[in-house]
């Protein structure tokens, strides 16, 4: 496989992932971003924890989530638990942001 073929394949995979995202985003209430992944979910619990050495870390649990990952064959996940020392961003989605405009 040439570098051009690989680039074309990855571009097609990203386009398919974007289309899937567009189709499912309206089903979810929250966006959760971690250092490694982007999730859509309706149930998220973020806990701030302290390590023995005094550092702070985050524990995020989600149920029935969709994961933005083009290399994952099944992007719907029943339970997710993320533990990280990096930033975590949780945003509530406004349903009106995802409504399609009415035909004029």
Helix content range of the residues, please? Answer: 10-25%
Radius of gyration of CA atoms, rounded to a whole number: 17 Å
What average pLDDT do the residues reach?
90
Major sheet summary line: 6 strands, antiparallel
Number of strands: 6
Which regions are unreliable across 5 or more consecutive residues at pLDDT < 50? none
Q: Work out the strand percent.
A: 35-45%
> What would the principal axes of the Cα set say about the shape?
globular
Our count of domains comes out at 1
DSSP summary: helix tally: 1
Order of helices and strands: HEEEEEE
Protein name: DUF2469 family protein
InterPro entries: DUF2469
Please explain how this structure is put together.
- This is DUF2469 family protein.
- There is one protein chain.
- The chain is an alpha+beta fold.
- It has one domain.
- It has 1 helix and 6 strands, in the order αββββββ.
- It has one helix at 3-24, and strands at 30-33, 38-41, 43-50, 56-67, 76-84, 89-92.
- The longest helix is centred in the N-terminal third of the chain and has 22 residues, at 3-24.
- It starts with a helix and ends in a 12-residue tail after the last strand.
- The model has no long low-confidence stretch (mean pLDDT 90).
């Amino acid at each position: 496989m040439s570098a051009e073929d690989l680039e074309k394949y990855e571009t097609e995979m990203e386009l398919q992932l974007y289309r899937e995202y567009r189709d499912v985003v309206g089903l979810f209430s929250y966006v959760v971003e971690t250092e490694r992944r982007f999730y859509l979910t309706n149930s998220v619990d973020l806990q701030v924890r302290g390590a023995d050495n005094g550092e702070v870390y985050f524990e995020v649990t989600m149920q029935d989530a969709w994961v933005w990952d083009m290399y994952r064959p099944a992007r719907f996940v029943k339970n997710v638990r993320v533990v990280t020392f990096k930033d975590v961003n949780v945003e509530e989605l406004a349903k009106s942001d995802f409504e399609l405009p009415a035909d004029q």
